[in-house]
Amino acid sequence: MLLLLWKRWFSPPSDPDSPQMQGGTPEQRVEAIQAGDEAQREAFIVQYRPFITKTASRVCRRFIDPERDDEFSVALAAFNEAINRFTPNAGSSFIGFADTVISRRLIDYRRQEMRHAQSIPYSSFTDDEDNGQGYLNRMENAAAVEVYEQSREAEDRRAEIAALSERLADFGIRFTDLVDHSPRHRDSRLVLLRIGTRLGQTPELWQMLTEKRQLPVKELCIIEGVSRKTVERHRKYLIAVSLIAAGPYPCLRQYISLEYDKQEGTPS
């Protein structure tokens, strides 16, 4: 049964991206949809249902049942959002863009669910004649919610680190390499955080990095007013920061902002 489900949702019999089979690339079909072809939208979403399910399952780290799990509805809405928002000059493929949007919306959904768990009314735990037991129940519930939230945040961080490690591998970088290539001085870190964030948030620079797998050294030096030696020496660190700044890594993004947030000129 599990094998059948896996084949059904994760191993479509044909390549959904095949232009010959679908009358165009995903980018071309999205362009047609944005031009007003709503019939194409429905067919496109149905075709990529396995991709939506697979992405949701990866982010949630469990199999997402399209017929039962709310997470699939969130992912489906995010895929439709990606269709509406995608621009060809953004420097990424539509599938990569859709993956990012789905991941972000699911992370937001999970955090909303955790906040909702904290808003359980006190009346659910009190009784006029409980002699203070309701107060104890509330304290125990608050502590349990806090532990649960910390656990989920830790799980989110682990998932983000695993996803980032795969992304870094595309550039020939191991996560452990960052330990050896991280700047030791605070001032240097602030400069490199600024440069890496700029790289991740500037479409032209980001496109050069993701398409050519090369750091746009010359352009960064001109824009940021730093030496070529500084950029080249910290290539791996800058790429890692840019991936975090541009990707679906809200937990890791908090870490790269811890020092920089308090400084003037904080990146938005």
Automatic annotation (TrEMBL):
Protein's cellular compartments: Cytoplasm
Activity regulation details: Negatively regulated by the anti-sigma-I factor RsgI.
DNA-binding region(s) in UniProt: 217-236
Example GO biological process: DNA-templated transcription initiation
Short name of one Pfam family: Sigma70_r2
GO molecular function, one term: DNA binding
Residue ranges of domain RNA polymerase sigma-70 region in the record: 45-115
Role summary: Sigma factors are initiation factors that promote the attachment of RNA polymerase to specific initiation sites and are then released.
Protein name listed in UniProt: RNA polymerase sigma factor SigI
Native organism taxonomy: Bacteria, Bacillati, Bacillota, Bacilli, Bacillales
The encoding gene: sigI
